[in-house]
Amino acid sequence: KIDLIYIDPPYNTGNKDFIYNDFFVMKYILALDQGTTSSRAILLNHRAQIVSLEQLEFPQHYPQPGWVEHDAMDIWRTQLACARNCLRKAGVSPSEVSAIGVTNQRETTVVWDKTTGLPVAPAIVWQDRRTAPYCTELQRRGYEVLVREKTGLRIDPYFSATKIRWILDRIPGARARAERGDLAFGTIDTWLIWKLTGGRVFVTDITNASRTMLCNLDTCRWDDELLDIFGIPAVMLPEIVPSSCVVGETLADMLGAPIPVAGIAGDQQAATFGQACFEAGCAKNTYGTGGFLLMNVGSEPRMSQHRLIGTAAWQLCGERAQYALEGSVFIAGAVVQWLRDGLQFFNSAEEIESLAQSVPDNGGVYLVPAFVGLGAPHWDSEARGMMIGLTRGTTKAHVARAALEGIAFQCAEVLEAMQLDAGTELKELRVDGGASRNNLLMQFQADISGVPVIRPAITETTALGAAFLAGLSTGVWSSCEEISALWRVDRVFEPSMSADRREYLMNQWARAVGRARNWNK
What we know:
Layout: E1 2-3, E2 24-25, E3 28-34, E4 38-45, E5 50-57, E6 69-70, H1 72-90, E7 97-104, E8 110-113, E9 123-124, H2 132-140, H3 144-151, H4 160-170, H5 174-179, E10 183-186, H6 188-196, E11 203-205, H7 206-209, E12 215-216, E13 221-222, H8 224-230, E14 239-241, E15 244-249, H9 252-255, E16 260-266, H10 267-274, E17 283-287, E18 291-298, E19 309-314, E20 322-329, H11 333-342, H12 351-357, E21 366-368, E22 386-388, H13 396-422, E23 429-432, H14 439-449, E24 453-456, H15 461-472, H16 480-484, E25 489-493, H17 499-517
Parallel strand pairs: 3-7, 7-16, 11-14, 17-23, 23-24
Antiparallel strand pairs: 1-2, 3-4, 4-5, 6-9, 8-10, 12-13, 15-16, 17-18, 18-20, 19-20, 21-22, 24-25
Helix pairs in contact: 1-6, 10-15, 11-13, 12-13, 13-14
């Protein structure tokens, strides 16, 4: 495909109307962005511009309180359809795509039959809390310190290991089949790559592996002691590879031609890479279903002293892994979805901003969205959602504003812990994800956190990060420096709240969280 492209100064004459008249062969990267509620495909050119985007939602299943499941075949079908539609919509031939980058909802667990390629059970989603009793048992048996030192993680139902064990123990015959080597485990990246390559490639990258509670952060390898503790056969685990490397090609009939799969990262690490957080101390927050804050800490893993977790950030081919501190807020954008679908406050998520802006403040209402417990820095799987401060004058607008502020309050708690761990104050917070387009939320985040919040011109940074990782390993981009030059600012939200007001609101929030954690006492 031959495209005419505009060339920015200094590569042109400096005339804004100048058009480069030589022919240029445009390079494309296809990013598969598989999320918790939808599958997406985004086609980008070599200048990191979005050429086309396709998105399909898929069903969520809640068979019991605290259980969240997906049909892995729904995920596969919607993701493949998005990829095909994305190319067709752009009028781009698959032979023109340099590489595919895959990014995914993390920790969600799929176990499937290697022969049939069919799941043996519903995928257990990262939000699922069914293994909380088993996690409590492991903590009681004294494994908390060992797991944290080896993996950087806390023992929690959030991560994959206890989900794998649940499937092996509860699905008839599953453990015996796994021990014979008949079953495969994967997070969603592994599942998609397996399907795209017709079962020829069975891999995960270090970022996804580091979310399982089975990977040793120091060695970047599966840990035999942890496998023994959780009772998981090593033969069912994928090979761990760098985040940026060519791992194989898609089958020709999947997308119309073989395309290299060259980038893999869990969604939050991909977003961190897409935000060009390449220097230690740089932090980002992604507002998706949950809220996920990551700070780059360099080439050595760091253990948190303030109830955050350590995780792999990414690994480029032939280089050392990079690491991050992370704080996970389980419910962020999902609270807006709840107001829309559960309480029917509005018809579209975008309407919440104008509704919340119709009142000057929250009217004393605080909404703690602990629908599946609380993540960092509390790690309380027994906490439950709570709304307090209601009066006869409370309106839907106050509740909507309290919901948005509840997202920001949770993230502010994590940022405070992150700065204490890092021993330095943040200079800025880079943001992305769907809710980052909500100006009211972003301004309140800046106010309650006391740091500038920077929204990039392209907020699809999860897909962008996957594309960058794929493009680096296939020559579309030559270096991280080249990628940094592509990152652009859309808007900066400067904090304007007084320190006294900030302290008062955070104290009120802390009181509300305390009640949510003790709701049954």
